[in-house]
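Dear Dr. H.,

I hope your travels went smoothly. While you were away I took the liberty of generating a structure for the chain from your last submission, since the lab meeting agenda had it listed for discussion. I wanted you to have the full record in hand beforehand rather than looking at slides cold. The sequence, exactly as received, is reproduced here:
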Amino acid sequence: MKGDFLVIEGIDGSGTTTQKKLLCEWLEDREEEVVSTHEPTREEGRIGNIIRNRLVQDKYDYSPETIALAFAADRLAHLEDRIIPALEQGKTVISDRYYHSSMVYQPEHGADIEWVKKINRYARKPDVTIIIDVPAEESIKRQMDRDGGESSIIFENLEFQKGIRKRYVELEEILDENIYIIDGNRSIEEVHKDILEVIKRELKE
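The corresponding predicted structure, in token form, is as follows:
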């Protein structure tokens, strides 16, 4: 395809949304056409929006396998009606989360990682995936700061985030693709600089 597909991943509070915004701005300053997106999708009527409402807000107690299948369905629809058309037009697509999240979060809840990988096998591989790595303790602190210190986060969630972080780091060995792990426990500017170095090198800019 003519365009480049970039993905930014990381545990909660790692700064994926901030870094995606900065990368989009950098590319737009270079007069590139950029499509900024995220998963699960949020638009009204989309599978991702249903996931967000039913699984997150209403807290339905579904199995990790059911959740993984729902995310996979949302992902393929997202690819077909937004990501692939943009890439075919030569645009750069940057997604905040992709199938890497499914391969991390659902297995940590108990799903088999090889099965999760299999149900996502038709999803297009990104050209570059950036994983922003921060310690679980920093993740919790950032979430609490974001929520004004009123978060309900407890010790069990810290242990969960430790497991998620470990799984993210292991993706570099599990997946045969261009994955770069960036130290996110620094200033926003320093992290952005390292991401740009990767993008320039991989996309030969």
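Two observations you may find useful: The longest strand covers residues 5-10. The chain has one domain: 5-202.

With kind regards,
E. W.
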